[in-house]
Design brief:
By secondary structure, the protein is of the alpha/beta class. It has one domain: Rossmann fold. Helix content is 40%, strand content 19%. It is built from 10 helices and 7 strands. It has a 7-stranded mixed sheet, sandwiched between helices. β5, α8 and β6 form a beta-alpha-beta unit. α2 crosses α4. The chain is globular. About 8% of the residues have low confidence. The protein binds zinc ion.
């Protein structure tokens, strides 16, 4: 058997877990609140199609590429909580944890810019999310800017005053990776199974909230741990499983209700060695 290279894998979902809110919802609140009704009550399993509809509407309303990126970075700066950042940093520093974000509902551009806004990109070793890129819409309006700015491309230089860049571009998200029979467009259970097969980690600690996170929780084994946000689908599933009304979870389950509780639970488990 391979000797684990890391003590822990800290795997965290994105919306309503690492960030306290749903990024797409917050964007709409700020940039086009009249669209908010479309998003209320939606869970991550159905988010890719809906996100594309919202992004197309934002583009149609004149929200430029740069304005979108600026809004994402401002969200990270203001609302990616210090507790969540401490959780990542201390898990790495104190417990030799590898940190990965796995998000079936979000996309690489959202995750990248929210983390960048908080200067937290270095706290994350990998991101598994849907692919996204800016694509030009129609002709002329913005012909001088590149049609596609892939994630990881340098942020463009400050636009000349009064002339926003990327007006004629919209962000398009593509469901990436394989789905599953529970309906995830990109199943986080696959990521967990792949990590377990690699044999590089002694234990996996998974933080999640939404319906798609159930697949990740079900793929974990004894010695792993699920941290489920109270009041959301993952915690509801765990309660059903504990009551014998759903397929049982092999991993230990801890319910949290604030970013501080999540941080304390993750670090406490690592300190104690789960078990
Ligand atoms: Zn799934």
């Amino acid at each position: 058997m391979t000797t684990p290279a890391w003590d822990w894998l800290l795997l965290t979902s994105f919306d309503r877990t690492l960030v306290d809110f749903d990024v797409c919802e917050r964007l709409v609140e700020q940039l086009a609140p009249e669209l908010l009704a479309m998003l209320v009550g939606q869970d991550s399993a159905s988010m890719v199609g809906l996100t594309n509809t919202v992004l197309a509407e934002l583009q149609r309303r004149g929200v430029s590429r740069d304005a979108l990126i600026e809004a994402l970075q401002a969200l990270g700066c203001d609302e990616l909580t210090p507790a969540a950042c401490d959780m990542l940093r201390l898990a790495k520093e104190r417990h030799r944890a590898a940190v990965r974000v796995v998000s079936p509902g979000a996309n690489g551009v959202f995750v990248h810019h929210v983390l960048a806004g908080r200067k937290a990109a270095a706290l994350v070793d990998g991101v598994v999310a849907n692919a996204a890129s800016f694509e030009r819409v129609g002709d002329g309006a913005d012909a001088a800017t590149p049609a596609v700015q892939q994630l990881g491309g340098k942020k463009s230089a400050a636009p000349p005053a009064g002339k926003p860049q990327g007006v004629g571009q919209k962000l398009v998200v593509k469901a990436t990776g394989g789905g599953c029979d529970r309906g995830c467009p990109m199943c986080p259970g696959r990521e967990v199974r792949a990590a377990k097969q690699q044999g590089r980690y002694r234990s996996i600690v998974f933080c999640g909230a939404g319906a798609a996170d159930v697949c990740a929780a079900r793929a974990l084994g004894p010695g792993d741990c699920v941290l489920a946000r109270g009041g959301h689908a993952l915690a509801e599933y765990a309660a059903c499983a504990a009551a014998g009304k759903a397929e049982p979870l092999a991993a230990k389950v801890v319910v949290w209700r604030s970013p501080e509780e999540m941080r304390d639970a993750v670090l406490g488990l690592m300190e104690a060695g789960v078990k």
